[in-house]
Amino acid sequence: MAPDWITSDAPVPYETALAEMEARVAGILAGSAAEALWLLEHPPLYTAGTSANPADLRDPGRFPVHVARRGGQYTYHGPGQRVVYCMLDVGARGRDVRAFVETLEAWVIAALAEFGVRGEIRPGRVGVWVPRPDKPPLADGTPREDKIAAIGIRLRRWVSFHGVSINVEPDLGHFDGIVPCGITGHGVTSLVDLGLPVTLQDLDAALQRTSPWSAA
Questions:
Q1: Do residues 75 and 7 make contact, with C-beta atoms less than 8 angstroms apart?
Q2: Residues 176, 58: Cα–Cα separation, whole Å
Q3: Which side of the chain, N or C, has fewer Cβ within a 10 Å radius?
Q4: What is the DSSP pairing of strand 145-156 with strand 187-188?
Q5: What is the side-by-side order of every strand in the sheet holding 65-67?
């Protein structure tokens, strides 16, 4: 059966989203709820994953900081960023965490390609990256790349929650309060920063078109 697609039009407080995810995951495990893909925005906030380094929180008083208990380090969420919480039965899909993460990465890359953006994966750097030949290289000559999407999941008895976030038109200055995902040197970008007049609704449609899971 296809997962439910849920879209929230107004920013959802992080605590509310976490409670809703917990309830849905419990329902999936109990057999009383369908899998779900939840598309939403958050008010400005930082989340700390299980690998977060406190030194990477550069401006701790800027926005609320939430301990997410997902994989990864510090991330920013806020208006103009599409968060997709994926509550899916990974156990029924082979019990392969790496393959599941690769499926999420491929999904984001396929959705970005709908707008002519080439998203790429880099070993040792979580998330989806965009080459920026229009920007000067790093001091060591490494070509500049900017992060456009973050990925962080958690499993409970093989049901996933948390998921992906894709930058459509967030305030990129808000990322300055953290070292995003613990990676220095490279920056952060968005679809609008790349010169594309894309809305959240445009991205939502692309995510449904390219989803590995049939839209409900």
A1: no
A2: 8
A3: N
A4: parallel
A5: 65-67, 45-48, 74-77
Measure the CA–CA gap between 173 and 116, rounded to whole angstroms.
25
The residues pairing with 39 across neighbouring beta strands, listed in sequence order, are 7, 84
Reported as a single tens digit per residue, the pLDDT across 16-50 is: 999 999 999 999 999 999 999 999 999 999 998 88
Which structure tokens are listed for 161?
């929650």
pTM of full prediction above 0.90: yes
Question: Could you report the per-residue pLDDT of 193-206, keeping only the tens digit for each?
Answer: 999 999 999 999 99
- H-helix or E-strand spanning residue 167: strand 159-167
Residue pair 65/47 in contact (Cβ under 8 Å)? The answer is: yes
Q: Active site residue: 181, 183, 194, 206, which one?
A: 181
The Cβ of residue 127 has, within 10 Å, a number of other Cβ atoms equal to 24
